[in-house]
Design brief:
40% of the residues lie in helices and 19% in strands. It has ten helices and twelve strands. Strands 1-12-10-11 form a four-stranded parallel sheet, sandwiched between helices. A four-stranded parallel sheet has the order 3-2-4-5, sandwiched between helices. A four-stranded parallel sheet has the order 7-6-8-9, sandwiched between helices. It starts with a strand and ends with a helix. The structure holds iron/sulfur cluster. Iron/sulfur cluster is lined by residues 13-16, 72, 95, 97-98, 164-165, 192, 194-195, 224, 264.
Length: 281
């Protein structure tokens, strides 16, 4: 039998729980609505919402129903007004940590600071922060090379925000470089508590000598799942899986103990299924 050890902390965070609960409550009213972008980055959750009669659309213009649900990743502030103009009723499931960054970045901009978002420019959370802004008042930076191409000294002050689900260790050198170039640089620690706790627990699991192999369970588009995978694979043999169906039995040859962790948008059932399968071997 394969032994399974779960990370001390993994899976659903408060933002994801809140978003799914809001949609389930809405679905129970039998009103018609659509979710703008994946509610959370997990295909299983998206399917569950579709089964409840709430489909996911990519653009505001695709919403034909009277209600629109903004996902946990948030939207550009102008979308609230656009939705109103279209006569849509908004159900806002944006995570409060994302809303905090919207508020703080607006204040920083009003103070005349130049904004830096460290994260993925194609991620909905990051486009939510930047879509409405003029191109000269912000940068989105993903690596040190990009930071080195900018003349940071020309800005009176710089304010750095992190995408909520990053692995801070990987990006620290970017913040350090910008601070060295412009002493009036301030860094807002905006990586959310759930991401930090899941990452710390994943590190502990991957350094546990009893664990031979790690499986990280999560959605293909989930940034925080990808970061858990990156942390674990640097420490131990690791596979990133969406669920039970992705497991190759060959991985388990000679393996006595599997460590399990899961992204913040992974439902508990997905983890239970994997554990059940492994312990039944
Ligand atoms: S991972 Fe963090 S920022 Fe994202 S929804 Fe969960 S609590 Fe909110």
């Amino acid at each position: 039998m394969v032994k399974v050890l779960r990370a001390r902390k993994y899976g659903f965070c408060s933002g994801v729980r809140n978003a799914t609960l809001r949609v389930k409550r809405f679905a129970a009213t039998k009103k018609k609505g659509a979710i703008l972008g994946q509610l959370v980055h997990n295909e299983r959750v998206v399917e569950e919402m579709e089964q409840l009669g709430i489909k996911t659309v990519e653009k505001l213009s695709d919403v034909k129903e009277p209600h629109v649900i903004f996902s946990a990743h948030g939207v550009p502030p102008s979308f609230y007004e656009k939705a109103k103009e279209k006569g849509l009723d908004v159900i806002d499931a944006t995570c409060k940590f994302v809303l905090d960054i919207h508020k703080e970045s607006k204040k920083a901009l009003d103070r005349g600071e130049h904004l830096v978002f460290i994260g993925d420019p194609n991620h909905r959370e990051v486009t939510g922060y930047t879509f409405d802004l003029g191109k000269d008042c912000f940068h989105i930076i993903q690596n040190l090379g990009q930071a080195e191409e900018v003349d940071w000294k020309k800005y009176p002050a710089v304010r750095i925000f992190y995408q909520t689900t990053l692995n801070a260790d990987e990006y620290e050198e970017i913040a350090k470089y910008i601070s060295e170039q412009n002493p009036l640089t301030h860094k807002a620690d905006t990586i959310c508590y759930a991401t930090k706790k899941n990452q710390q627990a994943a590190r502990e699991l991957a350094t546990n000598p009893e664990v031979d192999l790690i499986m990280v369970i999560g959605g293909k588009k989930s940034a925080n799942t990808k970061h858990l995978y990156d942390i674990c694979k640097n420490l131990k043999a690791t596979h990133l899986i969406h669920g039970l169906e992705d497991i190759d039995p060959m991985w388990l040859q000679g393996v006595k103990c599997v460590g399990l962790t899961a992204g913040a948008s992974t439902p508990d059932e997905a983890v239970d299924e994997v554990e059940e399968y492994l312990t039944s071997l």
